[in-house]
Each structure stands twice: as C-alpha cells, then as structure tokens.
Amino acid sequence: MAAVYKSVLTQKGLNLIAKAEAGDTGIKFTRLVTGDGEYDGTEDLTEFTEMKSVKQETAFTGKEYVEDATVVLTAIVTNLDLEEGYYIREIGIFAEDPDEGEILYSISRPVGDIYDYLPDSSNGQVSIQLEADTGISGSDSVTVNMKGALALQADLEEVQEEVNEILAGMLSVSYDEEKKALVFSIGDLESLKSTLASLTDIDEEAE
Hints:
Layout: E1 5-9, H1 11-21, E2 27-35, E3 54-58, E4 62-67, E5 70-78, E6 86-88, E7 90-97, E8 101-110, E9 116-118, E10 127-135, E11 142-145, H2 153-170, E12 171-176, E13 181-186, H3 189-200, E14 205-206
Parallel strand pairs: 2-11
Antiparallel strand pairs: 1-8, 2-3, 2-7, 4-5, 5-10, 6-9, 7-8, 11-14, 12-13
Helix pairs in contact: 2-3
C-alpha cells in the first residue's frame, strides 16, 4: 500500500502566496526534496524553514490543477547511486521568492504510519513517483522547474508513437521494373532531425 502524504504550507509559503495575489510575482516551484526526518506530531510545520533530514532532491515531472487554489506536483525519485535506503517521512516543496530567494514553500508528512521505502542501489534500480498537493490560493502564474527530471514511461511512449507516425509518413516504397526490386526512400532528413529534436526536448520550465 502506497503512502498518502498531507501537505502544510509554511509561513514563507503563505507570504509568497500573498505577494502573488497582490500581483507582485508569480509562483515558481523549483524542486522537490525527500527526507527521513522523524516527527512526533507536536511540531508547528508552518514555522519550518528547512527539512529535518534531507536525503534526495529532484525536479518536477508535471503539475495538475485539482481546484482553484490547489495544484498537484509530480516528481520521480530513484535509487540510482543511492548508498543507503531510507523511508520517505517528509517531502519538501521549494519555491522562488523574489525577495528572499529559494524558500521551503510547503512540507508534507505521511498520513498514519505507512511510509514509502526507497532501497539502496544494490537492490536494483527502483523509482517512486511522488505526488504532493499544495495550496496556491488565487495565483494566476504558476511555473515548475523540470530541468533534469526523469521522463515518465507514458511520456516516452507518446514520443515513440509520434516518431513512428513521422517515419511512416516519410518512408515510401516503390518497385523498380528495370532492376526488378523494391526501392525504399525516405524524405527530408534535416526535417526529420528537426522534428525529433522538438519531440524530445523537455521544457526546463512548464507553465
């Protein structure tokens, strides 16, 4: 059973929302950070400015609005080069504040005693897709940093389908009566290269 995480906005996150609502800035989410810090339930998470025990960080793979004031951010963590496995007991969402720089925008804790576990790399490669919902209030401008993020399998399959369609449209087959052989030809290779580059280029920031 996968862990379910509940998000709490920090005071710095609330301050950034206020600035965004005033039209002074947008909200740019910079990274997702996982950790294994332990909590006893008495902590005031709104006052946190850093996580208890950082283990890994990653860019985002996507976002989805679920309500006017909430966005679900998606990221993938992997055990590649991970020397020691750990339980994901805390998830931090970081954002860029125009006055303070990068801030801890929100922090998520598992609901109950069920945690996701990421083993070390000696156990074979393992990836976990994490979803963290966080408040954005009425901000009209929300961007996420996707530079260096792992591609989702669904995204790779979509790219493969588009590539196959392009190749099918460019490849032609004819029969040479004189040579008594099939002749295969392909269209403009430069155009093909340009199209493939556009398909595989992942935006560093997504609106």
